[in-house]
Amino acid sequence: MTRFALQFGQTQPGLTYLERMSAYGICPRGEAQIAIVQIGKRAPYEYDLPGGGIEADEDEAAALMREFEEETGLTIWPTRVIGRAGQFWINKGEPRNSLASFYEVELSADDGAPSEADHALIWMSPGEAMLKVRHEAHGWAIMHWLRSRRNTN
Known about the structure:
By secondary structure, the chain is α+β, with helices and mostly antiparallel strands. It is built from three helices and nine strands, in the order ββββββαβββαα.
């Protein structure tokens, strides 16, 4: 089983976790908000950074741009890698180890709508997003991104 330097979540005894390479992005809108995906048709909702699994014919950047458009309707361009982390979780009954690369992304266009019916684009403060995202790895990526911006400004 592959592990990134940072691994979040807990495994359950007796389960085999399928590894899935994935890419997620942090898309700032000004200094106060980032794009978050709200998942579900009605409350209680789940929240993720936009992104997802990398298909066999894609690289990380292509997968990230595709997933961003599907989940948010936004067209983005990856600008820099923030970090990498694994996340053990169970997705629709399937144990997964999401081996994720996290990117800062630049907004290119925002004139679309999500093509996934149970996904909606929400803009929220990074602090609120850190508390609401369902995966610890996503919360870590937001915190790491905030700290890196503090050190460059």
